[in-house]
Amino acid sequence: MVIFLDNQNRVLKHSRLFSGTLSHVEVHPREIVREAIKVNAAAVILAHNHPSGSPEPSQADRLITERVIKCCRFMEIRVLDHLVIGRGAYVSFAERGWI
User: Fold this and answer.
1) Quick one: which of 1, 5, 7, 58 could link to 47 by a disulfide (CB 3.0–4.6 Å)?
2) Cα(20)–Cα(73) distance, rounded to whole angstroms?
3) Over the stretch 46-77, which tens digit does the pLDDT of each residue have?
4) 71 Cβ neighbours under 8 A, 6+ residues apart
5) What is the chain's alpha carbon radius of gyration, rounded to the nearest angstrom?
């Protein structure tokens, strides 16, 4: 899930851009940037769930987040957070200081 925000952090759109299997989702940062440009978003929030129930981000989660941040930064789009949701809990990259 990607939430697209304007320059006052108001929601412009939310979209489920990617889906996958129980163990893997293919994320393409260019698709996030393309949609952000289309709706004139100034910022995005990323979110996804872990079917395993654990909200702890994987190394792959951290790497793709870095790729998305780099692509968005180039287009002057801020990534405000990446939320990983598990059974009854979540992890916020922003709260952990990773963004």
Assistant:
1) 1
2) 26
3) 999 888 899 999 998 999 999 999 999 999 99
4) 29, 30, 32, 33
5) 13
Rounded to whole angstroms, the Cα distance separating 96 from 99 reads 8
> Which residue range is the domain that position 39 belongs to?
2-92
> Does residue 97 sit within a domain?
no
Residue indicated by tokens 């899930």:
1
CA distances from 48 to 4, 8, 57, 85 (A): 15, 23, 10, 6
Q: Give the pair of three-digit tokens for residue 22.
A: 């129980």
- The helix, strand and coil proportions of the chain, stated in percent and rounded to the nearest 5, come to 25, 30, 40
Residue 15 located in a structural domain: yes
Are the beta carbons of 46 and 10 closer than 8 angstroms? Answer: no
Task: Give the Cα-Cα-Cα angle 88, 56, 12 (nearest 5 degrees).
Answer: 75
